[in-house]
Amino acid sequence: MAVQYKDYYEILGVTRSASDAELKKAFRKLAREFHPDVAKDKKKAEERFKEINEAYEVLSDPAKRKKYDELGANWKSGADFRPPPGWASSSGARGFRSTGPGAREFEFHFGGTGFSDFFEQVFGSRAGGGMGGGPGFGRHAGFDEEDAAERGRDIEGDIMVTLEEAMHGSVRSVTIRHNSRAETYQVKIPAGVTEGKRLRVAGRGEAGSGGAGSGDLYLRVRLARHPDFGVEDHHLIHEAELAPWEAVLGINLSVPTLDGRVNIKIPPGTQNGQKFRLRGRGLPLRGGEPGDLIVVTRVEVPSQVTEAERKLWEQLARESRFKPRD
Questions:
Q1: In 76-235, where does DSSP find H-type helix?
Q2: Pick the CATH number of 230-319 from 2.40.50.140, 2.60.260.20, 3.40.605.10, 2.60.120.10
């Protein structure tokens, strides 16, 4: 199946040789610009935000980036894409058509999940053969027309869930297209959903035969990257950049949360990498205490200084009794 090729480097505005730090900087800049919560044109920003997230999802992961780069640099963004001959077997990717004696071919396309068909074919659940031990999408067994009633196969895809949705829950419209037929379902995303969780929509998979029931639809959650937070279980991680004098003297610092900004006190003598915990400011946990927001300090040193600043640093070096190597 041909899909539109996505030039992830072009989407992030970086070169193919971009470092991890350059990728992170580009993502943060674009994600803040197009985050739906701050953009005026929310619908357009939402689509761009998902595209930026997809690109960073791939390029920030060394294994995915290597796999993507193996496709070559000669593809044009928006051009029809088919994996090159032999690429699937050499990269370990698997398509989502069934194979083997008596097998039928199933091609499902998802809409409203936040991921492009290109991502799903190359990196999604379809390419990976599904999750767990059940009949996941991409692993449909052969089917004998003479068999008795048989339950329809399950199908599986990925769904991009923002941290805001994971915080408060939401309902999303997801469209499944099979041949010329398209059906839209309302998918409930519960508050506190975690990375890798599979959302089950009963009876919305492949139709059964001989009067048997349909299979189920499974959507595997992939938490969207956020410019301000990382995620560990139900905890949110925020890196707070400090100037050297802020770390030495202390500061009242405004930090973001998913429910607005709050002030925390950074005490004098704060070290690089020191952690401050804001209880209950993380993601909710069903049946338990919510996670925390963990603020990790990162002391930044200016890469360039003026002549006047240099003299002040030199004066500090002469007068300071601090000996870091003693």
A1: 87-91, 117-122, 125-128, 163-168
A2: 2.60.260.20
CB contact at 8 A, 60 and 96: no
Which residues touch 46 (CB under 8 Å, ≥6 apart)?
Answer: 36
Question: DSSP assignment of 196-216, as one string?
Answer: TPEEEETT-SS--BTTPPP--
Q: Which residues pair with 173 in a beta bridge?
A: 186
Cα gap 157→308, rounded to integer Å:
58
Tokens matching residue 228: 């301000």
Q: Which of 103-107, 137-141, 227-231, 302-306 has the lowest mean pLDDT?
A: 137-141
Over residues 175-220, the pLDDT tens digits come to 887 767 788 888 899 999 988 899 998 888 888 888 888 888 889 9
Provide CATH 1.10.287.110 ranges for the chain: 3-141+151-223
Count of CB atoms situated within 10 Å of the CB of 22: 14
Give the per-residue pLDDT at 179: 67
Q: Does pLDDT of 252 surpass 90?
A: yes
Task: Name residue, tokens 């240099």.
Answer: 310
pTM over 0.85: no
Mean pLDDT to the nearest integer, 250-264 = 95
Biggest alpha carbon–alpha carbon distance for the chain: 90
User: Quick check: 141 and 178 in contact, CB under 8 A?
Assistant: no
The CATH number that domain 3-141+151-223 falls under is: 1.10.287.110
Question: Each residue of 174-199: b (16+ CB within 10 Å) or e?
Answer: bebeeeeeeeeeebebeebbeeebbb
User: CATH 2.60.260.20: which residues of the chain?
Assistant: 230-319
Q: What is the number of H-type helices and E-type strands within the chain?
A: 10, 14
Tokens of 124: 């999604």
Instruction: Identify which of 98, 96, 78 has the alpha carbon closest to the alpha carbon of residue 176.
Output: 96
Residues 6+ apart with CB under 8 A from 325: none
| pLDDT (mean) for 44-69 | 91
Distance CA 164, CA 166 (A): 5
